[in-house]
Design a protein that fits this description.
Arc Repressor Mutant, subunit A, 40% helix, HTH_HxlR, WH_DNA-bd_sf, transcription regulation, mainly alpha, two-stranded antiparallel ribbon
């Protein structure tokens, strides 16, 4: 639950859903094509009760939805919604930051590449409406009211 100081902050609200390590790891795996509870559990090594609660939160938050298994079995699958797919740049940004700062030179790691060309992705950059690359000192926060 957000306090009064953070209730109007989009970052604080996003962290209410995405701030848990497992939520982002589940979304990462969903981007990689995992869909079934057993696949998430095997890949993450997560206890069933924790995985169940995180999947429930992601479904309730509209990032994942459940649907009958594509193979016609009795299982259900967890599928990214448009809202869930919109988190992709966040996951890519975290990945790129991790690649840059958390691995030693030559250390083994996974790499996300363009599926068509096989080349590494461009580094994500924040840009203004005019295309300029923006840094923290170039931005300011303001409160707005809509509606």
């Amino acid at each position: 639950m957000l306090d009064e100081n953070n209730a109007q902050c989009p970052v604080a609200r996003a962290l209410e859903v995405l701030g848990d390590r497992w939520a982002l790891m589940i979304l990462r795996d969903a981007f990689d094509g995992l869909r079934r509870f057993s696949e998430f559990q095997k890949n993450l090594g997560l206890a069933k009760n924790i995985l169940t609660s995180r999947l429930k939160l992601l479904v309730e938050s509209g990032l994942l939805m459940t649907q009958p298994a594509s193979d016609g079995s009795a299982y259900k699958e967890y599928v990214l919604t448009d809202k869930g797919r919109s988190v992709f740049p966040v996951v890519v940004g975290l990945r790129q930051w991790g690649e840059r700062f958390l691995f030693e030179a030559g250390e083994a790691r996974s790499e996300l590449v363009d599926g068509v060309t096989g080349q590494a992705l461009e580094i994500l950059q924040v840009r203004g409406q005019d295309g300029r690359v923006l840094h923290p000192e170039d931005c300011q926060r303001r409160r707005v009211r809509h509606g």
